[in-house]
């Protein structure tokens, strides 16, 4: 059971990394369309705000809710997978 738990935790880590990077680059793309290259510079300096605020902005302003589902849904899914894996492996 320990091996299965570790595999589920690894799947959770992979989901977290992939959805996080994909969501962040998607947010940078949204910001570059709105504010241009200086917006990207500001977004890189304010990374947490970019990750949290841009999906909400894109959803309410443009009706594009995919960045919100990707960022928040991927994080929640990764947390659930790593929690289940930790419970199964006993750590």
Name its key features.
91% helix; elongated; single chain; 4 helices; 91 residues; mainly alpha
Task: Report on the architecture of this protein.
By secondary structure, this protein is mainly α. The chain contains 4 helices and no strands. Helix 1 runs antiparallel to helix 4 (66-89). The longest helix is centred in the first third of the chain and has 34 residues, at 2-35. The chain starts with a helix and ends with a helix.
The helix content is over 70%
Mean of pLDDT: 94
Please report the total strand number as a whole number: 0
Give the percentage of residues in beta strands: under 5%
Rg from Cα: 16 Å
The secondary-structure class comes to mainly alpha
How would you describe the shape?
elongated
Q: Would you identify the regions where 5 or more consecutive residues have pLDDT less than 50?
A: none
Distance between the termini: 12 Å
- Tell me which oligomeric state these chains represent: single chain
Could you spell the SSE succession in H and E letters?
HHHH
- Summed up, the helix count is 4
Largest beta-sheet details: none
Number of domains: 1
């Amino acid at each position: 059971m320990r091996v299965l738990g570790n595999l589920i935790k690894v799947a959770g880590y992979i989901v977290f990394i992939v959805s996080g990077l994909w969501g962040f680059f998607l947010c940078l793309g949204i910001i570059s369309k709105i504010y241009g290259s200086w917006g990207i510079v500001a977004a890189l300096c304010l990374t947490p705000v970019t990750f949290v605020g841009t999906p909400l902005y894109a959803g309410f302003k443009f009706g594009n809710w995919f960045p919100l589902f990707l960022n928040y849904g991927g994080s929640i899914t990764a947390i659930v997978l790593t929690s289940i894996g930790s419970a199964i492996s006993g750590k």
